[in-house]
Write a structure and sequence with these properties.
The chain is α+β, with helices and mostly antiparallel strands. The chain has three helices and seven strands; from the N terminus they run ααβββββαββ.
Amino acid sequence: MKFSQKYLLLLPVLSVFLLASCKDSTEENDLHYNWKERNAQWFAEVYDAAQASISAAKAQYPEGNEWEEHCDWRIYKTLLKSQEVQGPSTDYIVCKINERGDGDWSPAYTDSVRLYYRGWIMDENYPASKDNMKVFSQTYYGDFDKTTAAPIAMPVTATVEGFMTAVQYMVKGDDWYVYIPQQLAYKETESDAIPAYSTLLFRLQIERVHKSGTGMPGWR
């Protein structure tokens, strides 16, 4: 039995439709579809919002660093690159101060810290928000309670570049949210529950800072 010419002409159109349908279906079912670009967009949006808030505070409080008392956002360049060159936004971390500590000094590259943390990645749904995030690692469960939570002791250099940079700007008692672009996190490498090219969000709470060579006493 032979197909008519009319049906033969329809076959290429039908093939394109089926391929497109399969592609759309695959994209909808692939939870990490366009993951790199979506995570880059998320960080870019946070960076722009922080920069706008900092610029507004500096304009309102132009004397010295007075603006810092009136703005909870900070943007810091990775300490592993020259601070003399501007560089792209992905050379920076974005920090939101949740609570200011009373420590006198920040840890150096060779020091150690005791801290509490919770880390999130963007959920497969976008846009990212506090209600649309997935915990990938944490040192406590449920709502944070300092009376029951136990901090983890670690060298400043024990984790990714963005985390390490944030800690070196913090003091004892600081409680920050830290946004780390994929370039200062795991980049193209998948790590446990973290897909490659993920932007990371941490809540970091510094319990103690320990100078290199002084030992690490108990935390209670």
